[in-house]
Write a structure and sequence with these properties.
This protein has helices at residues 8-11, 17-29, 46-52, 71-75, 100-110, 140-143, 152-155, 170-183, 189-199, 202-206, 208-222, 251-262, 290-301; strands at 12-15, 35-40, 56-61, 82-88, 116-120, 146-151, 164-167, 229-230, 238-242, 267-268, 281-285. The protein is an alpha/beta fold and 303 residues long. The strands form two sheets. Strands 1-7-6-5-4-2-3 form a seven-stranded mixed beta sheet. The chain is globular and about 55 Å long. The structure holds pyridoxal-5'-phosphate. Residues 17-19, 43, 88, 92, 120, 122, 151, 153, 159, 164 line the site of pyridoxal-5'-phosphate.
């Protein structure tokens, strides 16, 4: 899909989900006092793994409403101790995606350095409005210094199976597999056989963008009369919503109330920030049946 030619044994590691891939990658590549640039809001496991390896997370904060990276400001975070840049596209929780310009800017920043790139692409097939996912694997020069992380859990609606993989040039895969080997040794063989059968059917993953875009559009339409202000969702199955017209309480208190009183669960966005930043934003997930989305929107529109 991304025009890369990779060796199955020496450049791919099958992992227990994207999570174990990230754990094995970061544990192998981050050493004490290494700085790792993390983009916030960030998926919850990134910083704990970096810290556990003795690394120092250096945070670049995305700002609403666009949640885009200002690459000039980003470049200011680079130091002689920068070991690695950790990025995520499509992005959880902001539902933004990397553009070709983002990749070009990143390439300029790392040129002439030894900085590694870890690209978390677990939502690769969930990109909407006719746009395409741009993978690290599409950029041969960047791939030489990087690892891309994927998850069969997201692609096959089976996060409980804990199946994913990491793709990296052999010199990095060699290091990652040292950790992977003593971490899980291997992931269950019968699941690998099952997934390899699913992969034969290209339509299953190539139809995912339309499948989820329909859900996104349905939820957006159903929420049109609500007092929540929805942010555009370009990818992933998440949808950010601003609730400032409804309540001034903290996002954690607000989602507790939403769950207990109204029966709809959401995630407070402050938990994706180290400093607990309060933007009165919550994250909905539209990976649900139409029936559930309809019921949820009905409840939310009454608030
Ligand atoms: C951005 C991101 N990366 C990685 C993962 C982990 O994926 P997996 O369930 O395959 O471990 C998730 C899961 O929610 C995620 O949102």
């Amino acid at each position: 899909m991304y025009g890369a030619s990779v060796h199955p044994a020496s450049e791919i590691t099958i992992t227990a989900g994207g999570s174990e891939a990230l754990y094995s990658i970061l544990t192998a590549l981050v050493h004490p006092r290494d700085e790792v640039i993390v983009i916030e809001p960030a998926f919850d496991c990134y910083k704990p793994i970096i810290t556990l390896s003795g690394g120092i997370p250096v945070v670049y904060r995305l700002e609403k409403p666009s949640f885009r990276i200002d690459w000039e400001a980003f470049a200011q975070l680079i130091s002689p101790r920068t070991r690695l840049i950790l990025l995520n596209t499509p992005h959880n929780p902001t539902a933004t995606i990397f553009s070709a310009a983002d990749w070009a800017a990143l390439a300029r920043i790392v040129e002439g350095t030894n900085i590694l790139i870890v690209s978390d692409e677990v939502y690769e097939h969930l990109v909407f409005d006719g746009q395409s996912h741009l993978s690290l694997l599409s950029y041969p020069d960047l791939f030489q210094r990087g690892v891309a992380v994927f998850s069969f859990g997201k692609t096959y609606h089976g996060t409980g199976w804990r199946m994913g993989y990491a793709v990296a040039p052999s010199y990095l895969t060699h290091e990652i597999q040292k950790v992977h080997q003593y971490n899980v040794f291997a992931v269950p063989t019968f699941l690998q056989y099952a997934i390899s059968d699913f992969i034969e059917d290209r339509a299953a993953y190539l139809s995912l963008a339309d499948f989820y875009q329909e859900k996104r559009d349905f939820f957006e339409r159903a929420m049109a009369q609500s007092r929540f202000r929805l942010f555009p969702s370009q990818g992933s199955y998440f949808q950010l919503a601003d609730y400032s017209q409804i309540s001034q309480s903290s996002d954690v208190d607000f989602v507790k109330q939403l769950t207990k009183v109204h029966g709809v669960a959401a995630i407070p966005v402050s938990v994706f920030y180290n400093n607990g930043q309060q933007d009165q934003l919550i994250r909905f997930c539209f990976a649900k049946t139409t029936d559930i989305l309809e019921q949820a929107a009905e409840k939310l529109c009454k608030i």
